[in-house]
Amino acid sequence: MSRIMTILLAAAGGLTGQTISQEYQTPIAPVAGVEGTGVFYLQASYSRDARGVLQSVVYGVYGYLWTPGQAVVTGLEIRKGEAGPVILRVPTAPRTVIRGEGLLEGGGAFATGNPAATTALEEMAAGSREYYANVLTEDKPDGAFRGPLGRAQIKYLTGFTAPVAESGADGYHVLYATVSRDEAGAVDSALIQSQASYVNLPAALGLSPARGLSPWRLRVRDADGTLRFDLGSPTAPGASGSIPSTPLLGIDVRDAARRLHVERLLANPAAYTVEAATTTHLDGLTRGALRSMDRILFARRASGPAGDPVVPLVFELDFTRAEDGSPNAGMIFVLGDFATAAVSGAVRSLSLRDHRSGDPLFSLLAPGRETGFQVGRWMLVANAITPWDAAGREALDRLVNYPDTVRVAAGTVDRPDFVSSLAAAPTGPPVIRAIRSAASARGADLAHGSLVTIEGDRLAKFTSGLDGWAGMNLPMSLNGAIVEIGGLRAPLLFVSPNQINAQVPFEVPIGGRLVAVHNGEAPSEAAQVRIAALAPSLFPEPRPTAAAGEIVDLFATGLGQTNPPQATGRLADASHFVLATPTATVGGVSAEVVEAVSLPGVAGVYLVRVRVPAVAAGDQPVVLRAAGASSNVLMLTVR
Predict the structure, then answer these.
(1) Could you give the 3-state DSSP secondary structure of residue 213?
(2) pLDDT tens digits along 283-322
(3) pLDDT in tens, 49-106
(4) 86 has which bridge partners?
(5) What's the whole-model pTM score?
């Protein structure tokens, strides 16, 4: 989904869904007598019971330090207040020696038996900034670097890379970028992490993982080819040509140029490329443009054979979509609290299997990670699904669309055959409670080609939009959910258990029509709507400001067909004039509509440019009218 579409739908009250992951980040400053600076990042994934109470939490911590000398890190913790009580001690390596700069890493799990930690997560989710990250060192056992944790912005990026020059190699790379912002909204800390890097090596290249590939360099360049971020050298790849490790780069945003490129990378990843280089190909072995990814998280309580305990699992799926909306590549993460005698010991295998037959679908342990990643009693495993991995794409598709057809098989030192089922989330037919224009909260007629919001219960299994989609025709199915309006499939932009955003097909006949949702398991009862040729509706953001005589840009939906005509679900390729230009008033005074055109790069959204008439300064109501129908009121600030 384009950035402007995300902004418009979010401003109109869209894009809602249950979240089961929280990310926090902060710049960490030195205490007295210490030199340096750093970044601290916390991700907590969790589930809730039927009453909404927080259940077992699995969390991970990453960080980065810059120090002019040497720092021997002995621990990581979270405190309430800068020097207050310790809320959570993070299991980590006993001694992490950082010379100059380097990363921090740790993680763990806790259940509701730690009320202070669960309260902290609830308060942090509500916006509290009173919880501090604290990095302990050998010289400063009470803390050498500290900072207040706030919500982090995270961007999931991927690159399908092509051969550089005559290398003949192609690849697939997954990166995460996270930032925190100060009170003015400026980036004050940033991290970029490589989650996976895979390269196909042609035989003619004469290279093998054991010869000529190490050390890798993962780099990000801007549109001019200038190197902007160097993620360093991951560990040498295994026999598959993959890099299973996760190099982490802290971005020193005190450098204005680096801070600027962090902002640009988040806003427009397609303007940057990712490349893998080797000692034999210093200028790059394979390179390609970056793009955004979709993200789905869901929690399941996996129960094994009779007598075995329940194991809480959290799945994170980060992936891109093909033109039809189906997942075509990505990452699968599984976080679990294996804190039971029945499944203790190092994990030797973890795979997805068909729920009925037990046939294996996909191994969740990447090459070289046969023991997973364990800290204390918790475990994090991850594996990438490359574009050329047919079995992996099938497993990803089933997790996204039909998760209840999959189960997990875990093999440990003590239990080589522990098999668990993925208990389904509460299911049933979807229930439609309200249907309205996606631009405003009021219910009204829906126009041909307009964007619509459907609200209800159990509308879809998971929450996701189209961040990982880069097509031109909106998908007709998303995460197993389908919408029909007047008996015709409606293109989808966003789905969640409680809300769906879709486009009304241009082909639906005018008049009273039925709307139905299918969530992948069952259909809803149909709801009645009225379809009109035109039904203007204004998006509330961005809120315009202008002086009398100036032209202001408004964003609308419900303005019908254009010349040349738009196809249902297809993103506009240019600014095409609407067939019926609406009229406008500002403060009750007639205003000139300079133009009303389709907005390029999106579907169902129009740009209406209006000249502000001579009205008094201050907030003035703006209304569009077309074919006898009036829009909602948008407030314009007149200077």
Answers:
(1) coil
(2) 888 888 999 998 887 776 666 565 565 666 777 888 999 8
(3) 666 677 667 777 888 889 888 888 988 999 999 989 998 888 776 677 787 888 887 7
(4) 79
(5) 0.80
The CA distance from 137 to 126, in Å, is 31
- Total residues belonging to the chain: 639
CB 496 within 8 A of CB 562: no
116 three-state secondary structure: helix
Longest dimension (CA), the chain: 80
Helix (H, G, I), strand (E, B) or coil at 104: strand
Separation between Cα atoms, residue 395 and residue 353, nearest integer Å: 9
Q: Is 9 helix (H, G, I), strand (E, B) or coil?
A: helix
DSSP state of 15: -
DSSP-derived secondary structure for 163-179: E-TT---EEEEEEEEEE
Cα angle 76-96-131, degrees, rounded to a multiple of 5? 15
Side chain identity at 191, as an amino acid letter? L
How far is it, in rounded angstroms, from Cα 443 to Cα 389?
A: 46
> Are the CB atoms for 569 and 474 separated by under 8 Å?
yes
The CA–CA distances, whole Å, from 150 to 4, 156, 211, 295, 531 equal 25, 19, 45, 21, 45
State the DSSP H helix or E strand holding residue 289, giving kind and residue range, or none if neither: strand 286-292
Tokens 């810059």, residue? 66
Burial state string for 515-553 with b = 16 or more CB within 10 A and e = fewer than 16: bbbbbbeeebeebebebbbbbbbbbbeeebebeeeeebe
Cα–Cα dist 182/126, whole Å = 17
Q: Of the candidates 177, 170, 287, 174, which has an alpha carbon nearest to the alpha carbon of residue 227?
A: 287
Over the stretch 216-236, which tens digit does the pLDDT of each residue have?
678 899 989 998 988 865 444
Whether residue 243 has pLDDT greater than 50: no
Confidence at residue 395, expressed as pLDDT on a 0 to 100 scale: 87
> In terms of DSSP H, where are the helices of 321-422?
390-401
Cα separations (Å) of 192 from 17, 73, 189, 265? 26, 21, 11, 11
Average of pLDDT values for 382-397? Answer: 83
Do the Cβ atoms of 529 and 513 come closer than 8 Å?
yes
Q: Are 193 and 220 in contact (CB under 8 A)?
A: no
